[in-house]
Amino acid sequence: MMGSNGKIDFKHKSRLIFLLGFSLICCRLYGQQSAKIVNDITQLNPIKVRGVLNPTTTEEIVYAIKANPGPISIGGGRYSMGGQTATEQTLQIDMRTFNKVLHFSKKDKEITVQTGITWRKLLGFIDSANLSVKIMQSYSNFTVGGALSVNAHGRYVGQGPIILSVKKIKIVLANGHLVEASPTEQNEIFYGAIGGYGALGVITEATLFLTDNSKVERSDTVMQADVYKKYFFDKIRNDTAVIFHSADIYPNKYRKIRAVTHRITKKEISVAYRIKPVEKSYGFNRFAYGLVSEFPGGKWIRQHMIDPFLYRNNPIEWRNYEAASNVEELEPRSRKKTTYVLEEYFIPVDSFNNFYPAMARILKSNKVNVINISIRNARPDPGSLLAWARTEVFSFVMYYKQGTTDDDKAKVKNWTMELIDLVIDKKGTYYLPYQIHATADQFAKAYPNSTFFFQLKKQLDPTYKFRNKLWDAYYKQ
Hints:
31% helix; alpha+beta; 14 helices; 19 strands; Uridine Diphospho-n-acetylenolpyruvylglucosamine Reductase, domain 3
């Protein structure tokens, strides 16, 4: 490698740099190889991984993928609830330290970020430019990469899955190659990776379209559940002033709905903060959820006392304030004996009035401790292989409480499989970030393009390097 003048030959210089970097990442990897337990927010899925890497650069991720001969899993905020971010004996790439803003253009209304960044940090960065995100989930603690991985959605009217707001991504594949993908370039990878739950590689960068940070005024109305669909299409769907909208079905009777809407307004702001501050304690929220889920008559108290108090006025706030909600407000004091969990089902809009009564019957007959069911609307997905919105859909986001014993878990599996059968019968699907209870047959029926997705995975990841509990359950090599 040395020339006659004692200097390093240029042709060997790049190889030496690579080897030095490779050696450095190997040292970091093997320094973190002691087995570690990772878990998700429910605390129902402890998984022993071989080691954890906390990268800060794309080069570290590339080196890790090349240096590690064994399986790899990818984690972010760990708000998925069924092992979608890990499986046994993998090297876990924990993306939360990979969180920089790389490029921002106020003029073009777009931002490029490392995907371990949280939405809260992203909102804080763009707020001074009076811009906001186009689509995100209801809580801002999640990472951008996690939201892309599950193809998240929120309460944004006229929008749908987050893929609609993504200009392009960069992803490191199983061979260590860094690829840029968009709807027009490497589009098969783009439509496979977004909503692909880490199966194809590590999404390292995302360029997102932004929009204006408008003032919005909240309003609400209570109605019978069977008139909600007509209300939504008559009053909400085509109103361009509406930014956020959702509707909560009240358990245990499931007959009444409170529809909550945020519309653009020119009125003066009534909320002091531009973005919600991070509170140290959510004591009232925890008390309220505990009362609703455990106290006799708690659900009646919520419907007739707590919510009327919370919705007694119509605040005017910034869009970013509403987007910056903190998931900690849902966190119980302990998850040891009981835990809060989510499930979600997507129904073609024409099936709304057929689906929700049948859903209610299943929940009642199984005595499911439902805290809330939130209804949202989403426009069709533009082409992701694991699309959950193949047509325009209503989503039913169910937040419930369950015990942590094996018997409790078995009961949840039984009624979840009933709901999955119901949603498949109505030509809909279920959401994949939650507990993995569906059979292989149910998964295949709910996600008919999974065959093409698995073919792409086999092509890009022939040794099954990228793994987690979801793909252990359904991917057959």
